[in-house]
Task: structure prediction
Amino acid sequence: MQTRREILRHSAAVAGLLAATGLFPRHAFAYTKAAFEAHTLAEVMKALGSNAPAESKDVSLTAPDIAENGAVVPFALSTTLPNVKSMLILVEKNPSILVAKFDVSDAIEANFSTRAKMGQSSDVYAVAITADGKAYFAKKEVKVTLGGCGG
Amino acid sequence: MADPMRIRAQASGSSAVVRVLMSHEMESGQRKDAAGKTIPAWHITDVTATHNGKTVMTAEWGPAVSKNPFLQFTIKGAKAGDKIGISWKDNKGDSRTDEAVVS
Result:
């Protein structure tokens, strides 16, 4: 008879094999998986190949002070910096910190709005990454009265 | 196939503001069902926007984007009559593309 530990070990091995053969559906996408699984700002920046971000007045983040419903928190992020390659939204205390990554091209303004889930009150970061790999951020604390991750 | 997106693109001055409302469950992978089993994550991973057929924006999303996601961005140099296309792809391989005309 197999013990619980053995079963767990076997399923981990199978998962590893599946991942290695690219059978996991997620691996089929050109998806920056490591960045979306990171838990700290530093890990995200490393996964995206960028430096540690510096706080900047040229990046702006609009978010409510208090979000009544953590399942839909509106965010607006924009920057006036030149040569911005991508912009990120991060919620520090979510299970995975990275919410969304937008790739900026010459044809659009570095200005996005979207809505995100927040598990609990947390600092929210807007990060702008320039073409030369430098990163700048703005942050704001958002208080959540009802968490949006369910459970 | 998922429900169609609602796309509104409005020209203002030399650019156009595009607002998109997608219809997607965006399951976070954190919730548990009544039997205590974790509901697997199901969310949009890639979003692409085109302006007259040319890709102008791509985005990658995690499960923390809200259910029925809203997205707003601004396309420079877009004018009334231009075609805006939005497509998304989720982690189950489903996808959807919709088009709108700038007004």
Notes: The helical segments of chain A are 4-21, 33-37, 41-47.
